[in-house]
Design goal:
Chain lengths: 492, 60
C-alpha cells in the first residue's frame, strides 16, 4: 500500500485533539478571508465517512485513511447540501452520495465541506455564484478562477490536501492555474459522473485539485473505473510504464491568439524548462482551434438547456412564494427568481440553437466541428507523447468591473475546452510566478494516459517546484517543528 | 454570443459526421431492484407536503 508523503501529515488531523483544534482555528481564520466553502462541517463529514466506509479488500493501491477533503458543491455527498451555487437549491440536502466520493470514503477519506462555485458550473471566476465570491489566496483582490474556485482556493491555502471539482470547459484546470496548484481533468469516461449535477453531459468530468502530484495520483486511482450507474464510464486502461528519457511534446502555434505578457513570459520559461529537462519540443498544427470556442459553447449551452430543465421548484428546490393559480406560473417564477443571469443566458442560448430548423446551422454544425477537432488531436498524438498549451490567456484577474467581462471570459476558454471537446485527459501545473502571481500551463495526453501527465509534471517540478501562496500554511505532524510543506518560491 | 456563433459558418463541415456521443459502448445491466436511498430524505426536500404528496397549484 502506498501512502503519499502529504497523506502522512494529514492522517491524524481530524482525530488528534491538538491537531484538530489547531486546524479548525486555521480554517476559521482563512475562511474569513477566502470564503472558499459554502458549507464547512467536519463533524458531519466524519459521520458520513463512518457510514460510508467499509472494510474492503480491493486491488486499489492507495490508502487515504483520515484525509480530509473538500467537494465542489455540484457533486453529491449525502446529508450535505447540494446547492450548485444556486439560490434555487439553497436548502437542498443531498439524499445520496456520488460514486467517486463513495469510493474515496471506502478508502478512509473524510469530506469536510462543500466548496463555492460558479452557479451550476457556468463561469471562469466563481463570480457567478449565487452566494458571493471566493477570493484568491495569492491576492484577495483577484478571483480564484472558476468554476471550481472554492476547491482551488481551499487547496492553495492548505485547508485540505485535495479537493474535487468538475471540468466542463476548464473548470478544474483554470482555477488550479489561478491558485498555483495542480488540477487534473481525467479522460471522459475514466471517472463516473453519477452524483455530478449535470450541466453539459458530453463535456464534463470530475477532476482533482491538489498541491502534490502523488496526491493527485492516489486520489485518481481510487476514483477511476467503470460504474454501472454511469453508462458513459469506461474501464481504465493499464497504466503505462515510466518512460526513460524525456517525452516528445507537441507545441501548437499560438500566433493567432494574443497572450497577456505574464502568460507569454511564463510560456517561454516553460518551453526553456522542458528543454533543459531533455523533453523534445515539436511544432504541431491545430488549425481548428479558431472555431473551438463557438462550437464548444453551442454544445455546452444546448446540453445545459436540457439538463437544467428539471429545476422547476416543483419537487424540490426553492419554490417562489406568492405564486397564484397555476403550475406554469410557479415554474416561471421559481426559475426567474432562483437562477442567476449567466445561467439564464446559457439556457436561452441553448434553447435557441436547438429550435427545430436551426439545428443544422448551430448544434449539428458544432458537432461536426467537434469531429474535426477530435481527428486533429488524434493525428497530432501520432507524432508526440504530450501536447503543451497555456491554460488561460491571462493570469488571475481582479474581480468585479476591473476584471474580465463575461464575454471575454468565454473567449478565453480556448485552451481548456479542447480537452473537453475531445475527451482527452489534461493536467494543469504551476509553471512560474509573474509579478508574484501564479501562472499555470497544461499538458494534454491521449485517452487514459493520465500517468504520462503525472510523470511529466513530476519532472517539471524539478525546475519549478510548487509555489506556496502567502496564506498557505503546511500541516504539521504532531511533535514536529519542521513542516512537510515547501516554502514560498519565486519564479525560476 | 449568437453573432459569435455565426463564426462557425466559415468552417467547411463537408463530409464530417457529427459527434453525437463521446463513448461508443452500449451496455445493459440487470433490471433488479436495489435499495438506493430513503424516501424520507427525498421528500425532505419537497417545498410543500401533504401526507406524502407534494402539493402544487391546480393544473386544471
Amino acid at each position: 500500500m502506498h501512502v503519499s508523503g502529504q497523506a502522512n501529515s494529514w492522517a491524524q488531523t481530524l482525530i488528534d485533539p491538538i491537531q484538530r483544534s489547531s486546524w479548525l482555528e486555521f480554517v476559521r481564520e482563512r475562511e474569513d478571508q477566502l470564503r472558499a466553502f459554502l458549507q464547512f462541517d467536519p463533524d458531519l463529514g466524519q459521520e458520513v465517512a463512518a457510514a460510508g466506509s467499509a472494510l474492503c479488500e480491493s486491488d486499489k493501491t492507495a490508502s487515504l485513511q483520515g484525509i480530509p477533503f473538500a467537494v465542489k458543491d455540484n457533486i453529491a455527498v449525502r446529508n450535505f447540501k447540494l446547492t450548485c451555487g444556486s439560490k434555487l437549491l439553497k436548502d437542498f440536502v443531498s439524499p445520496y452520495t456520488a460514486t467517486v466520493v463513495q469510493r474515496l470514503l471506502e478508502r478512509g477519506a473524510v469530506p469536510v465541506g462543500k466548496t463555492n462555485l460558479d452557479e451550476f458550473g457556468m463561469g471562469s471566476s466563481t463570480e457567478n455564484s449565487g452566494f458571493g465570491l471566493t477570493y484568491n489566496p495569492w491576492d484577495l483582490k483577484r478571483v480564484p478562477g472558476g468554476s471550481s474556485g472554492g476547491s482551488a482556493a481551499a487547496v492553495a491555502a492548505g485547508i485540505v490536501p485535495f479537493a474535487l471539482g468538475s471540468d466542463t470547459g476548464g473548470s478544474v484546470r483554470q482555477p488550479a492555474a489561478f491558485c498555483g496548484v495542480y488540477g487534473l481533468k481525467p479522460t471522459y469516461g475514466a471517472v463516473s459522473r453519477f452524483g455530478l449535477v449535470a450541466y453539459a453531459s458530453s463535456l464534463e468530468v470530475i477532476g482533482v485539485i491538489a498541491r502534490e502530484i502523488s496526491m493527485i495520483r492516489d486520489v485518481f486511482s481510487v476514483m477511476r473505473g467503470q460504474d454501472p450507474r454511469d453508462h458513459s464510464s469506461l474501464p481504465h486502461a493499464e497504466a503505462e510504464p515510466a518512460k526513460e528519457g524525456g517525452f516528445t511534446v507537441g507545441v501548437p502555434d499560438l500566433a493567432s491568439i494574443s497572450l497577456h505578457e505574464e502568460v507569454q513570459s511564463s510560456w517561454e520559461k516553460t518551453l526553456d524548462g522542458l528543454k533543459s529537462l531533455g523533453f523534445d519540443m515539436e511544432k504541431i498544427e491545430l488549425p481548428t482551434l479558431d472555431y473551438l470556442v463557438s462550437a464548444y459553447y453551442v454544445i455546452a449551452c444546448a446540453e445545459a438547456s436540457a439538463n437544467l430543465a428539471r429545476f422547476d421548484g416543483i419537487r424540490y428546490g426553492t419554490r417562489s412564494a406568492g405564486f397564484s393559480g397555476n403550475p406554469e406560473q410557479l415554474v416561471r417564477l421559481s426559475r426567474s427568481r432562483g437562477l442567476g443571469d449567466e445561467v439564464k443566458l446559457r439556457i436561452l442560448l441553448g434553447t435557441y440553437v436547438l429550435r427545430s430548423g436551426f439545428q443544422d446551422q448551430y448544434y449539428l454544425r458544432a458537432q461536426r466541428i467537434r469531429t474535426a477537432i477530435r481527428r486533429e488531436f488524434e493525428a497530432a498524438f501520432s507524432g508526440v507523447d504530450l501536447i503543451l498549451m497555456p491554460v488561460y490567456p491571462c493570469g488571475p484577474f481582479k474581480w468585479g468591473s476591473e476584471g474580465l467581462d463575461p464575454f471575454s471570459q468565454k473567449l478565453s476558454d480556448i485552451f481548456t475546452c479542447s480537452a473537453n471537446m475531445t475527451g482527452l485527459p489534461a493536467l494543469s501545473f504551476p509553471a512560474s510566478l509573474e509579478n508574484a502571481l501564479p501562472i499555470g500551463m497544461q499538458f494534454l495526453a491521449p485517452p487514459f494516459a493520465e500517468e504520462r501527465l503525472l510523470q511529466a509534471c513530476e519532472r517539471f517540478a524539478q525546475v519549478f517546484p510548487i509555489p506556496a501562496c502567502p496564506l498557505y500554511r503546511p500541516r504539521q505532524s504532531a511533535g514536529q517543528n519542521e513542516s512537510e510543506g515547501s516554502g514560498a518560491h519565486s519564479s525560476a | 454570443m449568437l453573432e459569435y456563433f455565426s463564426k462557425m459558418r466559415e468552417f467547411d463541415v463537408e463530409g464530417l459526421p457529427p459527434t453525437a456521443r463521446m463513448t461508443q459502448n452500449n451496455r445493459t445491466r440487470k433490471d433488479t431492484a436495489v435499495a438506493n436511498t430513503d424516501t424520507e430524505a427525498i421528500l425532505g426536500n419537497a417545498p410543500e407536503l401533504e401526507d406524502r404528496f407534494i402539493v402544487i397549484p391546480n393544473v386544471l
